[in-house]
């Protein structure tokens, strides 16, 4: 239930087309639904503009299926991150139009269309190995109604590849930069554009990368102003923040 649904419900009660008893039944599931193993936040879209997202890591197939089964009754679009193909197969039995993006490990259910923004988000990736995290960011942003342009494999080891796409990057309202190894690309892009840059360190790299820690620290220590940083491999978080900025 979103803000418009609540307004329609209250208008119905006010004009008498909906009884108070029926209204109470409609509101019983707010602010959350307790499934025992999960408390689904039905109030979140009203508070922050986006419905709750399911993080599938650590959950069982049955738990993910149960959560989505209830969320389908609300009529909202559903986004589930870090999902396995097995989870998707179970969800598809509930809703055959469910989509699965194997690189991003995302399950998506679009029950209502969202108009795309005219401004766009640029998702820039240092290397091909960073694409799974980049796709998590890009698909998250697209799910929330953003136009997205992908610029992949333009890391600093061949920086001429970046300059070949710089006009596209500069045309974005916000830029997501995804990089592993030493994470230098975020600083380079931050020094070339006048838009917010959201840096995403990835766990891509050899031993001294420390599973993304070196890239994280490099990005946090960026000398380029306008660069903010999310957690290691957190493409979803970057896509979510980019969506909020793009829609301001």
TrEMBL record:
It is an enzyme of class 5 (isomerase). It comes from Clostridium liquoris. GO terms for biological process: 'de novo' IMP biosynthetic process. SUPFAM superfamilies: N5-CAIR mutase (phosphoribosylaminoimidazole carboxylase, PurE). SMART domains: AIRC (SM01001). InterPro entries: P2CMN_synthase_LarB (IPR039476), PurE_dom (IPR000031). The keyword Heme does not apply. This is N5-carboxyaminoimidazole ribonucleotide mutase. Keywords: Isomerase. One of its GO terms (molecular function) is 5-(carboxyamino)imidazole ribonucleotide mutase activity. Its EC number is 5.4.99.18. It comes from the Bacteria. Residues 119-248 form the PurE domain.
